[in-house]
Amino acid sequence: MPSRKVDKSPEKIRRMFGNIAPWYDFLNRFLSLGFDVSWRRRCAKRLLTATSVDGPILDVCTGTADLALALWKRQRTRKVFGVDFSPEMIEIGKRKTRHTDIELSVGDALNLPFDDATFAAVCVAFGLRNVGDTDRGLAEMIRVCKPGGVVAVLEFSMPTLPILSGLYRFYFRTVLPRIGQWFTKNRDDAYTYLPESVLQFDDPQRLTERMQSLGLVDVRSLPMTFGTVTLHLAYIAALP
């Protein structure tokens, strides 16, 4: 039986992530067996290597600013901005980044509070699937990125090996929700929403096609950890 479509209404997403904010970092480490740290570090390294135009970097759906921190720690010359829908997440992120040149603010990924062509690179880690309109979210990232700049999307994906795919689905749908719910006692079933949102989101091929259809060029997908996570890197077409 197909799963019921997940609720991505703004009220639901804001309340859900606000409620789990105190446990968010701990559960990210615990439930990913610590791999989430290396995923963000590799994303930061790839993104910065690919970025050749001048300017700051924006982390969309920054959460508690883990990717923003990974970007800042890897280089100290570009200012890093982070924006997230959840005030509770941003508050925790601000405590983590208070001695850095990272600027965090509450904002909507579907209506980013920045001018056109502001950033040399724009990225999102494990957040695009939570945005109510994927195309509009990507379009906003493209809008605020400079010509020649880089857009990056780091997101969960399904392993292609059948046995690993089966184990992955079992863990995501059975083990992960029980552990997450036990820790957070979340009434919105955030850790049931998480696996369903992953399973219902675009696979890497479909996301690549979506990014290309919005005008991004040289779109590359880079699988990590047996394909459980995929990094998509793409460029804004340079001005002639």
Structural description of this entry:
This protein is 46% helix and 20% strand. By secondary structure, it is an alpha/beta fold. Helix 3 links the parallel strand 1 (57-60) and strand 2 (80-84). The relative contact order is 0.16. The mean pLDDT is 91.
Which structural class fits the helix and strand makeup? alpha/beta
Number of strands: 7
CATH fold-level label? Rossmann fold
- For the record, the count of structural domains works out to 1
The CATH class label is: Alpha Beta
What is the H-and-E element order? HHEHEHEEHEHHHEE
Alpha plus pi helix count: 8
Q: Give the uncertain stretches in residue-range form.
A: none
For the record, what is the CATH homologous superfamily label? Vaccinia Virus protein VP39
Q: Could you tell me the radius of gyration in angstroms?
A: 17 Å
Average residue-wise pLDDT: 91
Q: How far from one another are the termini? A: 51 Å
List the helices and strands and how they pair.
Layout: H1 10-31, H2 35-50, E1 57-60, H3 66-74, E2 80-84, H4 87-96, E3 102-106, E4 119-125, H5 134-143, E5 145-156, H6 162-184, H7 190-199, H8 204-213, E6 217-224, E7 229-235
Parallel strand pairs: 1-2, 1-4, 2-3, 4-5
Antiparallel strand pairs: 5-7, 6-7
Helix pairs in contact: 1-4, 1-6, 2-3, 6-7
